[in-house]
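Lecture 7, part 2: worked example. A protein chain together with iron/sulfur cluster.
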Amino acid sequence: MSKKPKHELENNKLNKRLRHAVGDAINDFNMIEAGDKIMVCLSGGKDSYSLLDILRQLQASAPIDFELVAVNLDQKQPGFPEHVLPAYLDSIGVPYRIVEEDTYSVVKRVIEEGKTTCSLCSRLRRGVLYRVAKELGCTKIALGHHRDDILQTLFLNMFYGGKLKAMPPKLVSDNGEHIVIRPLAYVKEKDLERYAELKQFPIIPCNLCGSQPNLQRQVIKEMLNDWDKRFPGRIESMFSALQNVVPSHLADTELFDFAGIVRGQTLKHGGDLAFDRENVPAQFSGSPEDGSEAAPPRKVINILASKPK
Ligand code: SF4
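Predicted complex, written out as structure tokens:
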């Protein structure tokens, strides 16, 4: 029997890891249901190409049927290579719509030179994408944000916004009409970089608008990358923390009824550790310390299971 070359084995492993991470997120948050029509937002960057690619793989094997339609918004930035995405989407045979909307001129007209343009630009883009989802009759909108985007947002909100808030894997759109999903929520950015190289996606540069990168996000990204190198496992542990929130041990009076605490109540989440040294495990185990409050994730369908014969 011929042995597969090492790089081929590694590539298969990467593909399998990505499929499982995406499948797990879809299952844990019930992101996709039978009959869904999912609009996959494609920017031309590594994340959205990978998202579409993995969703197509899952679509081919999943035990339920759902549709995918790729949508790209051509914002009329100077130098945007219009032919790249249609050529790619034709070559893989996925249904798609390219929407042309000159948000670039609007942003340039409204925002003063030298000021950051991203927040208005994203707001305009969101509005167009919601409208298109409605026109196409889509039930879900899939975005390509990954695990590292979610953690960066958590720190941005903590450092600059005074909020313990990240980026949800699933939410209802601002107008209440659409469900937005982030199937890459469990995927590491590094894996997406490798996958995009492996698949040779025709990447479109993201700096065509001439906007400066968000410096605060860049600094946080570098901080997280540095931690990842120096303290292996820390990033994974931080992401697990987002899935193991203990409101009684934070300080939000909206989230937990501190005023209603009375004597004689039973201990929750290990009770009061104020007088003890908290015993934090060296390696995060992923389960709460008393095991009593954790609800099992609601598994409606298993997207990773095979199609029924
Ligand atoms: S980088 Fe440019 S295209 Fe992207 S959100 Fe900011 S202004 Fe818009």
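The CA atoms of residues 107 and 121 lie 6 Å apart. The first strand starts at residue 37 and ends at 41. Keep this in mind for problem set question 3.
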